[in-house]
Design goal:
The complex is a heterodimer of chains A (164) and B (476). Chain A is of the alpha/beta class. Chain A has five helices and five strands, in the order βαβαββαβαα. In chain A, β1, α1 and β2 form a beta-alpha-beta unit. The chains are: A alpha/beta (164), B alpha+beta (476).
């Protein structure tokens, strides 16, 4: 359970049919098995505007996504709400979604991104590469520990890209 | 031949994968050609080979996170043919239709409110810091809430018909695996009149905008074209099933009520060396004249009528603008799309009030076949699924033509038209970039076949001269 009594949403996203792009949903599937009190887990192919409603009901949101070029095994960043336009997608980026939740639903949720390094993306297949699997395991251990104290600023200092 | 320069607009967004616009200039800085490059991943056909056919309606949803329901239903329709289910039970067909209208509704609504409304409400030249969904929330908060609530309703319809909001399992070869409970029906019915009311409002925004800007939009990435869609036997708009109809730019029927199982007799796909995406065309007309548009604009153009009252009145207003002829204005896609939103809402209400949805007869089977085609009108346009299956029930062949592929030539022409009108010299202005995006966005292309991971580049604009040197580059 979270050590602070705060409500946390863990949201993994990506396509499990595209190899390491499935890191986010697979993380969500595994993390849900921990059944932590105060922690809701959700997943989808991508973020969408209606996710703003779930965000507004939580104190913290942890987005989990595959990262094609970030540091190994993962990095952890603060998501700063930012309004911007996407090209033609039916999706929305994490920062734009947080901005929307803030503006539309007066959300006070604080958001972080857990980017897990993946390696193989450009094929169809429902499995993870061996290195991505290893990174996934380390990321699972990390987040369970991080939710124990919710001292996310400290973890950004330690695992943010700028500090890797 | 004169010296040419290349202006490259390279949007790389997280979900969309990789799209790029190349604008070719002559030595005087005039546009000679524009090309839209989209990475379309073709490996799915191989991925599906060897799998049991009954798994395909679920597995195929891995192809696309944007419109999985459309792939789910198109694959299920193809597998109906394989298991010899020539006519589904009323409960099965109506449950699938409800699922499909829910999908169309939520897809169109999200596109309109999230992506298009900022362009329409603030104008193409508005500051990008304002011209986005947050700008809409700040200036039109009620509209923004409506967009979210309408999207959510469509998702709820998908959830109760497909079994869950993603990776649904509702449609199976020969039918469905669940009906609609009374509780599920009542849960949706309590909101449906509000959904219809909001649909009217969205339609009014799109209609009023198009009529008020008709002259400008007529010259904005617009061109004459063929239009292709499924059509019901009596000529009505039908998003779920029908024969193939194609009309030319004057409205003459080039193909009508063609048996969709034989689509490959009339449609071929061309490969071009500069594009990852294929170019479908009607064989008899050839590559140069046989290309066509699909999607909401084409469907409203090809239909003789719509079988729900308010959407039919809206269709008549739409047709009146072009005196009954096909509407070839690219930006009229948005108006047509909102007619379909109202139609979907009306159809959902009609279906929710139909007792057949609580029926118990869910699956039929007949004589087993080795080949099946499933075609559906997905939100973005006609979607073709074609499979062959061996005696061990394994898929041996799969061919898909997605709607964005059918709109490949039209999107290229739209971009070229905009570039010719708004670009002079080699500088990519904010206004040009906005307009190129607006023209592509009208087709609501789905580029999600590419992967999604973090670390992709933002929108990048490059100007490349005839020597291959980048002379200007901008990123969003």
């Amino acid at each position: 359970m979270t050590g602070t009594g705060k409500k946390v949403l863990v949201f993994g996203y990506g396509n499990p049919g595209r190899l390491d792009d499935g890191l986010g949903p697979i993380f969500a599937e595994e993390f849900e098995k921990l059944n932590l009190e105060g922690v809701s887990v959700d997943s989808n192919y991508q973020l969408s505007v209606e996710d703003s409603a779930a965000i507004a009901e939580h104190d913290y949101v942890i987005f989990v996504d595959a990262d094609e070029s970030g540091p190994e095994p993962f990095h952890f960043e603060h998501v700063v709400p930012r309004a911007h336009m996407s090209f033609s997608s039916h999706s929305i980026s994490a920062d734009a979604l947080m901005s929307m939740a803030e503006e539309l639903l007066s959300s006070k949720a604080e958001a972080y991104m857990l980017g897990i390094r993946g390696y193989e993306f450009n094929e169809f297949g429902e499995w993870l590469s061996p290195k991505a699997k290893k990174n996934l395991a380390e990321a699972l251990v990390f987040l369970e520990k991080a939710l124990g104290d919710c001292n996310f600023a400290m973890y950004v200092n330690r695992f943010g890209i700028k500090n890797r | 031949m004169g010296v040419t320069k290349k202006v490259v607009i390279e949007p790389v967004t997280r979900v969309e994968g990789h799209g790029k616009v190349t604008i070719l200039l002559d030595e005087k800085g005039q546009v000679t050609r524009a090309r839209l490059h989209i990475v379309e991943f073709r490996g799915f056909e191989r991925f599906i080979q060897g799998r049991p056919f009954w798994e395909v309606p679920v597995t195929v949803q891995r192809l696309c996170g944007i419109c999985p329901v459309s792939h789910h239903l198109a694959a299920a329709k193809a597998m109906d043919v394989i298991v010899g289910a020539d006519k589904l039970t009323p409960t099965a067909e109506k449950m699938r239709r409800l699922m499909h209208y829910g999908q169309t509704y939520q897809s169109h609504v999200l596109h309109f409110f999230h992506l298009v409304s900022p362009d329409l409400l603030f104008g193409f030249d508005a500051d990008p810091a304002v011209r986005n969904i947050i700008g809409v929330i700040k200036k039109y908060p009620e509209l923004a809430v409506q967009g979210v609530m309408m999207r959510k309703f469509g998702q709820e319809v998908i959830k109760v018909t497909a079994g869950k909001k993603i990776h649904g399992t509702g449609a199976i070869p020969g039918g469905i695996n669940k009906n609609l409970s009374i509780a599920e029906r009542d849960f949706l019915l309590k909101d449906i009149d509000q959904q219809i009311e909001w649909s009217r409002g969205a339609l009014k925004i799109a209609k009023d905008y198009t009529i008020e800007h008709l002259e400008e939009l007529s010259g904005f990435g617009s061109f004459d074209s063929n239009h292709l869609s499924l059509i019901r036997a009596d000529g009505a708009l039908d998003l779920y099933d029908g024969g193939i109809r194609m009309i030319d730019s004057e409205g003459n029927k080039v193909i009508d009520h063609f048996n969709n199982q034989n689509y490959s007799d009339i449609i071929a796909e061309e490969v071009r060396d500069w594009s990852y995406m294929k170019f479908p065309f009607i064989k008899d007309l050839g590559v140069d004249k046989g290309w066509y548009r699909v999607g909401p604009l084409s469907r409203i153009n090809t239909a003789d009528f719509i079988d729900t009252p308010e959407a039919e009145l809206a269709r008549q207003e739409f047709k009146a603008v072009t005196s009954g002829k096909p509407n070839n204005i690219t930006m009229a896609y948005h108006w047509a799309r909102m007619i379909e939103v109202l139609h979907s809402a009306e159809k959902m209400k009609e279906l929710l009030l139909d007792d057949d949805l609580q029926g118990e007869d869910l699956v039929v089977k007949g004589e087993r076949r080795s080949e099946g085609v499933g075609i559906i009108e997905a939100p973005r346009g006609t979607l073709f699924h074609h499979y062959k299956v061996n005696e061990d029930d394994q898929v041996t062949m799969c061919n898909l033509i997605v709607s964005t592929t059918s709109n490949n030539v039209p999107m290229n022409l739209a971009v070229e038209g905009v570039a010719k009108k708004y670009l002079s010299g080699t500088e990519i202005t904010e206004g040009l970039l906005n307009r190129v995006e607006v023209a592509i966005r009208a087709y609501d292309p789905c580029l999600s076949c590419a992967t999604h991971a973090l670390g992709k580049m933002p929108l990048t604009v490059s100007v490349v001269d005839h020597c291959g040197q980048i002379v200007d580059k901008k990123s969003t």
